[in-house]
Design a protein that fits this description.
Alpha-Beta Plaits, two-stranded antiparallel sheet, 4 helices, 172 residues, alpha+beta, single chain, four-stranded antiparallel beta sheet
């Protein structure tokens, strides 16, 4: 007899928890039907559905704002390409490479080949044949007792098709 009372006590607790969850759902449904329909309403923890109807009802309870616009995918095409090319590198080796239609640029550390190609094409109007990117580590420096390191940077060697060239050494 006592075993039945213990089991019944557990079942009563489960029923009580279930009714509390149902009450929460009812309050969420009231908020959706009322004047607050334009608010974002989300269930904190979705309940396990028993059948498809309950599952569909729970999906309807999760609403978004009426005025939401679809978000654009975050890709390299949407990123601003203004800061990708930092500056052209004008060195003896870079000057030598211009004879074979290759130009050297210092580029942003987080830039990749696709972003560099798109930035070159938008700035100079010439589509590059290939791009080689090199990561340069900063040099170790000392100022008196203080030791440190210069910043890491990235260099891009851009090859253009034969007959195509760009003007980067205007003031030299």
């Amino acid at each position: 007899m006592q075993l039945n009372n213990v089991h019944m006590g557990i079942f009563n607790k489960l029923k009580k928890l279930k009714t509390q969850k149902d009450e929460k759902e009812a309050t969420v449904a009231k908020a959706v039907k009322g004047s607050e329909a334009d608010r974002v309403v989300r269930l904190e923890k979705p309940l396990a559905p028993k059948d498809k109807k309950e599952k569909d009802q729970k999906k309807e309870l999760v609403l978004t704002k009426k005025e939401d616009k679809p978000k654009e995918a975050k890709t390299w095409a949407n990123k601003d390409l203004h800061g990708v090319l930092v500056k052209p590198l004008i060195t003896e080796k870079a000057n030598y490479l211009t004879g074979s239609n290759q130009y050297v640029f210092k580029v942003e550390v987080s830039a990749n080949k696709i972003q560099v190609a798109q930035a070159i094409e938008s700035r100079y109007g010439v589509k590059p044949l290939s791009i080689n990117i090199l990561n340069n580590k900063g040099k170790k420096v000392r100022y008196g007792r203080t030791s440190g390191q210069t910043k890491n940077w990235k260099k891009a060697i851009i090859t253009f098709p034969a007959g195509k060239s760009i003007e980067i050494q205007e003031g030299v």
